[in-house]
Write a structure and sequence with these properties.
66 residues; mainly alpha
Length: 66
């Protein structure tokens, strides 16, 4: 089943990016709910997005090693 590997890889990356976008949106909403200014909320959104995407890609890399 080597011919499906690129499709699976793209699907996994798309899921990781969508998951990270949701995490970033939740972080931004929680920051705004807490009373933070919009630039601060966007900063927290970007940090949460980058952190969750890094964790997803690190997990994929670890799974690929086995």
């Amino acid at each position: 089943m080597k011919h499906t590997f690129p499709a699976f890889l793209l699907l996994a990356l798309a899921v990781a990016v969508l998951f990270s976008v949701v995490v970033g949106a939740i972080a931004s909403a929680l920051a705004r709910w807490e009373g933070a200014a919009v630039p601060t909320a966007l900063s927290r959104c970007g940090i949460a997005f980058a952190a969750s995407l890094s964790l997803c890609l690190a997990t994929f890399a670890a799974l690929d090693q086995t």
